[in-house]
Design a protein that fits this description.
Layout lengths: L1 H25 L8 E3 H8 L3 H9 L6 E3 L2 E5 H15 L4 H11 L6 H44 L8
Antiparallel strand pairs: 1-3, 2-3
Helix pairs in contact: 1-4, 5-6
């Protein structure tokens, strides 16, 4: 039983490290940053060029142009990661823009941004914990029903796992 727990801990550690890197990139100085092309970002995040243009049109991403070609900094890459994560937990584009705009050009809104994230994550955690409790309750009920039906049919119990 130690295997799945160790694997889960490794996945959690990797996810945490990746999240910390995204945040560090988001707060980094853009001037001497590594640059990424449209194709690189699309491949890295499994999005289409249209998705990038859509986020640009909404003011969420602001790539530079070099000889007419859009190029993205590490900060843009981090912003895209934050946009996609926020969308995954149900944030609207307006909420995402509000969050990203709080930071400002020189980080002047960082405390306000952190307080917003704290409130948002507190709410998301509470909501997910409530859903998890409901799922666990439903699973317990289904296991009881399944066990009773198996007994009535003379079938062996379901293997755990």
């Amino acid at each position: 039983m130690a295997g799945p727990t160790a694997a889960s801990a490794d996945r959690q550690a990797a996810t945490t490290a990746a999240a910390r890197q995204v945040l560090a990139d988001h707060y980094s100085d853009d001037k001497n940053s590594e640059l990424f092309g449209v194709t690189e970002l699309c491949n890295a995040f499994d999005v289409t060029p249209r998705t990038l243009r859509f986020y640009e049109d909404k003011g969420l991403l602001s790539p530079r142009r070099i000889n007419g070609t859009r190029v993205y900094s590490r900060r843009d890459r981090a912003r895209l990661a934050l946009i996609l994560r926020a969308k995954a937990i149900g944030s609207s584009l307006a909420e995402i823009k509000q969050y990203l705009d709080m930071y400002g050009q020189a980080g002047e809104g960082r405390e306000q941004q952190l307080r917003y994230v704290l409130q948002r994550t507190d709410n998301a955690i509470a909501e997910l914990e409530q859903k998890l409790a409901h799922i666990e309750s439903s699973l317990a009920e289904l296991r009881i029903i399944n066990s009773n039906v198996r007994k009535n049919l003379g079938l062996p119990p379901l293997e755990p796992g």
